Amino acid sequence: MATRVIRRAVVDSTNEEAKTLIAEGAVPWTVVVADKQVAGKGRFGRRWASPRGGLYLSVILQEALERAPLLSMAASLAVAEALEVWDLPVTVKWPNDVQVGGRKVAGILVEGLVGEEGYWVVVGIGVNSDIPRDRLPRQLDMPATTLRRELGGPVDNEELLRRLLAALRDQLRDFRDPSKIVQAYRDRCTSLGRDVVVQTREGVLQGRAVTIRESGALVLRRPSGEEVEVTDGTVREPA
Ligand code: BT5
Asked: Are residues 175 and 199 in the same domain?
């Protein structure tokens, strides 16, 4: 399927725009891009600061929601690849962050919905690209950065979008066999091999991050030696 890019100036959230487009009959690989979001969404009802200059997009795909964690990994890898031209220290942090020098530069939010023609997912990607660092909120619960700050100059969002979509298509080429995506993700992931605290919907878990399963779950080895699988959460350094 060809990629079709739909442009918007200001939206609440490109993920919400994408859901409207699905209801209106959009086909897979329709992509909606906005200059600015006024109600950009993170996970667990959190906000995504989306000032002008950032890259905000949602890619519509026809996939089952069980594949959301894999899509999130594939999208993180695609962002990381798209940033490779700049030779920055790019890593991924489970399950949905892309970081430069340990600071969050992009986040992914995959949402699913059931339409008349089956399962749809919206892969939302926000990149702090051409944003001066002082345009991001001061109070974020994780260290953050922008490409403009890291590079010390302007960033061409059109070029970045083109590279990002090409890298995403590339990642999803072998989507039936997730092993390649998961291995590439493990290789880039800073969370593995470290003692972490994971905040989940059910509470806080502490342990050594051992591996990431093909389902996308993070395996934590608890101090007792017991291993537990975490499907979604926020990884933090232990206090
Ligand atoms: C995410 O959530 O990282 C998912 C972000 C997805 C944004 C894209 S933009 C296009 C599409 N349309 C949408 O409405 N959303 C998607 P999470 O892991 O929950 O991280 C959210 C947390 O990151 C917040 O609670 C803040 O602490 C922090 N944060 C908010 N805005 C940020 C920013 N611009 N850069 C870095 N950190 C940020």
From this structure: no
Q: Which of the listed residues 13, 48, 232 should we mutate to test ligand 1's pocket, taking the one with most ligand atoms within 8 A of CB?
A: 48
Number of domains present in the structure of the chain: 2
DSSP the chain: ---EEEEEEEES-HHHHHHHHHHTTPPTTEEEEEEEESS-B-GGG-B----TTSEEEEEEE---GGGHHHHHHHHHHHHHHHTGGGT--EEEETTTEEEETTEEEEEEEEEEEEETTEEEEEEEEEE--S--GGGS-S--SS-B--HHHHHTS---HHHHHHHHHHHHHHHHTTTTSTHHHHHHHHHHBSSTTSEEEEEETTEEEEEEEEEE-TTSPEEEE-TTS-EEEESS-EEE---
For 73-107, write each residue's pLDDT tens digit: 999 999 999 999 999 999 999 999 999 999 999 99
pTM metric for this prediction? 0.97
Q: Which structural domain range is residue 218 located in?
A: 195-236
CA-51 nearest atom, ligand 1:
34
